[in-house]
Amino acid sequence: MVMRKGVPAVFIALLAIAALACGKKGVPYDDQPSTSLRIEIVSGNNQVGPAGFLSDSLKVRVKTSTGQPVPDITITYAQITPVDSGHFPTPTWNIRKTDDQGIAYSLYYVDTQVGVDTIRAVASGLDDSIVYFVLQVTPEAAKKFVKVSPLTTLTTVAGQPMPVPYIVRVTDKYGNPVAGHRVRYVVQDSSVVVTDSTLAAGFESDTAYTRTDASGLASATWIFSVDYPGYYFSSDLRAYDSLGDLVSFFGAGTDPGTLTYYGAARPIFAAHCFSCHPSAYSDYSLDFYYQVKANGNMIPGDTTSPLLSDILPAHELTHLNFVEQNTIIRWVVTDNAAPGMSGLNNYHDNMKPIFDAHCISCHGDASPSGSYSMTTFDGIRGDGSDAVPNAIPGDAGCRLSLKMASATADNMRLYFGADSVALADSVTRWIVVDSLRDY
Ligand code: HEC
Ligand code: HEC
What is each CA distance from 311 to 226, 303, 305, 321, in whole angstroms? Predict the structure, then answer.
């Protein structure tokens, strides 16, 4: 798109005022007021129209200071910004003469690029009196629909958004951007397309609507499904403008490998389920791997896991799209609900070795001290000597955390030995910051 530099209308208007004032330059104000003539705009200033439009009359009047019209004055019109980008109806229409009413006019075809055209009218012999007309050029009707990017076939891991958005542009016949034009994206098979207004459009996954922005651009995100029989697979994404014009993109998805709770499933639960199933929800939470399994709701490898029916809209109108649903199904059924790594400190990799080395000699499975067995994750979360869990996610006041607090006899921190401060700190962070992350 060629956007030229527009001169702000306000600035032009100021110029015009300044020019009127300057037009009297050299004219003695008080001595001979009766002989001073002046040019003024009658009509045609501040017109707004689409690229290439023919202006209404750019009409000026020349009169004496007492208001008498002055005929036969030559008026010369010229475009001054941007230079010569439009044109007069005929080449000679730039030079006009005032009539008996002191009036002269011309017409002008504005530029075909959006911006501001400024036309100057100069009255000869009147101390170079000048006026300026400002014509604002807006885009013509939508005409062209083109692919902007990507221009090549991209490939990415199925389940992940394609690395770049799919961008199209709507312009008028001169290439000026057309804003607010509706664009519809449609995917063919085994993928979804998402735009900023996807939710407003309902739950359709194969179609998404949006509108062009001020630059005439619209964009969408394209995601391939994870459950395709045989990778790599390619498909196409089509974009239509509201005139029915079409552009097509091609792309491909590759096998995502083993999907994990932390890598693939949890982000989907966080987006769609945590609002009603928060960490502290007593019946069922999805914030931890072990919680997803609670109450028999998720059995790795089992297609009849209750969880798999609760990802459908029938459950509280949750609206996972088709790629998200397939991600959960593949994770549970094909990938046996692999836990994956949280990236934070987790029980399995970071905490278990510490407890095994320093605590299970007294807190083993057979008659553990304080009735508190520390050999498994479930044991760590157990109640010990009372009915309250010793480890509570995020709770710095839980018993396990308090037992880490200082190296007194009653506390257990001393059993960490030489590294007691650092190791106790690790355990406390795992409870409070990492919320008892299990993998
Ligand atoms: C608008 C609130 C809401 C949303 C969102 C929601 N749920 Fe639920 N869910 C509930 C309520 C309320 C119950 C308990 C009543 C019932 O079983 O329907 C429940 C129960 C469940 C149960 C059975 C729990 C049990 O052991 O009794 C599962 C499994 C479940 N939801 C999974 C999900 C998943 C997965 C998501 C996200 C895809 C989700 N829910 C999103 C409100 C919600
Ligand atoms: C030498 C034996 C011994 C070792 C080693 C030991 N503990 Fe203990 N622990 C005890 C005894 C005895 C109790 C019960 C008395 C008490 O609560 O102080 C106990 C109680 C606890 C309790 C409270 C249990 C309850 O519910 O009342 C926690 C928590 C605890 N220990 C954590 C740890 C941690 C963490 C470690 C490893 C750093 C550890 N312990 C190492 C002997 C030990």
Answer: 16, 13, 11, 10
Atom of ligand 2 nearest to the CA of 384: 26
pLDDT digits (tens, 9 = 90+) for 164-219: 999 999 999 889 999 888 899 999 878 899 888 765 444 567 888 888 999 999 99
- Sorted by sequence, the CB contacts under 8 Å of residue 220 that are 6+ apart come out as 165, 166, 185, 193, 194, 195, 208, 210, 237, 239
- Ligand 2 center from residue 412 Cα (angstroms): 6
Rounded Cα distance between 102 and 60, Å, is: 8
Residues recorded for the chain: 439
Q: Whose CA is nearest to atom 31 of ligand 1?
A: 310
For the four alpha carbons of 83, 85, 89 and 91, in that order, the dihedral sign comes to positive
Distance, CA of 438 to CA of 159 (rounded, Å):
25
Ligand 2 atom having least distance to the Cα of 413? 38
pLDDT tens, residue by residue, 218-237: 999 999 999 877 888 899 99
Binding site membership of 126 for ligand 2 (Cβ less than 6 Å): no
